[in-house]
Structure formats: C-alpha cells, structure tokens
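Lecture notes, part 5. Sequence design as translation. It can be helpful to think of inverse folding as translation between two languages: the language of shapes and the language of residues. The source text, in structure tokens, appears below.
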C-alpha cells in the first residue's frame, strides 16, 4: 500500500521549509477560515481551534484524508498579538515586548480519515530592551509584516532575543519534535523513517 499523501494546510513558506527540512513529502493548500478570536478566548484554546478548523476545512476541499494544520500566536499578559496592521500597530507590539518575556504558542492538528490528533506547544522568549530607533529600523526591513508579534526570530529580529526556553522551531511556526511525533504516529514518512531504534550511547559506550 502506498504512503498517504499529506497536505499542509498553510500558505506559510516558513512552515513549508521546516516540514521539508525533516524529509516530509507534502503539498500546500491554505485554509480559508475566519481567524477572529472569540470574546475572552484563551490563547491556548484559540490556537487549538484554529489548527482544528484549518485541518477540517482543507480535508473537506481536498482529495486526501491526511491534513496537517498549525496556528501560531505571540502572547503577552494574556493578550494575543497577531500580525501588525500598520507601522503604529507594529511599533506598539514591539514596545510591549521590549525587555520582557512572552510566550509563543502553536496549536497542531493532524487529521486522518476523520480522526484528529492535537498538540499545543509553548515556548518562552525573552526580549532585550528595544529603543524606538531600533524598532523603526527593523520595520524598514519589511520582515515583520506577516509575522505574529511583528517579529521573525529566524531573521534580523534574532538580535532582539536575549533568551529562549523551549522549542526554537515553534517560534518560527512549526515545532518539529512534536510535528515529527504526530507524523510518525500516523504513518507519514520522514527522513528518519525506517531508522532502527538502538540503545543510546555516550562516548561510544551503551548507557
């Protein structure tokens, strides 16, 4: 039996690059859904719902029964910081993130034959203090406009990051350890498919 065809329910080139990095064969099909948060909806509930709704929407419109969807948000003081709408909005978000620790949350949903597996991953990111001139110079790079929280950790904004606890790839948009586990558990081939599980070693000696 041939391996199932996976669809990534996303238009994000960053998610596509991360998924390709671990050797997955897939096609991209963005989901057309309303991404407005519900009133008083918690960030963790929001990303889980968005991932679930994206997976369901693409599963209905495609001819495959295996869909992977993800949604990532930046969260500070319980507020969801989405993509900036204009320069003022972006500057306000960067000012709030300056010198503080915030959370990056990603909801994952893998849908196969009507069954859904879900994971939520959270990473803590600490920013250095940012002055107005630095923020304006960053906005001039055109990097932040389609990014949650108005920054891209894999780009110029790496210089803002003083510390990180948790998955780096989660901050980029797709937590790879958790994604890989979901794929393997659902029979999707990766670069490590067929690997033999052996005893761990240290300095060439089995533990």
């Amino acid at each position: 039996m041939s391996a199932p065809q996976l669809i990534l329910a996303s238009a994000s080139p960053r998610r596509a690059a991360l998924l390709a990095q671990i050797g997955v064969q897939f096609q991209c099909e963005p989901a057309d859904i309303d991404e407005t948060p519900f009133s008083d909806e918690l960030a963790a509930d929001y990303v889980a719902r968005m991932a679930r709704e994206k997976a369901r929407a693409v599963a209905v419109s495609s001819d495959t029964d295996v869909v992977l969807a993800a949604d990532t948000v930046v969260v500070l003081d319980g507020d969801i910081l989405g993509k900036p709408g204009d320069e003022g909005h972006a500057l306000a978000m960067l000012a709030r993130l300056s010198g503080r620790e915030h959370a990056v949350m990603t909801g994952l949903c893998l849908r196969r034959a009507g069954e859904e597996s879900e994971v939520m991953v959270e990473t803590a990111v600490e920013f250095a203090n940012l002055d107005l001139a630095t923020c304006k110079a960053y906005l001039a790079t055109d990097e932040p406009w389609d990014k949650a929280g108005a920054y891209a950790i894999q780009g110029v904004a790496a210089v803002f990051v003083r510390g990180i606890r948790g998955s780096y790839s989660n901050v980029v948009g797709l937590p790879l350890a958790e994604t890989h586990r979901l794929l393997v558990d659902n029979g999707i081939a990766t670069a490590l498919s067929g690997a033999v599980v052996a005893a761990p070693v240290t300095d060439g000696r089995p533990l």
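The translated text above is only one of many valid answers, since several sequences can fold into similar shapes. The chain has one domain: 6-193.
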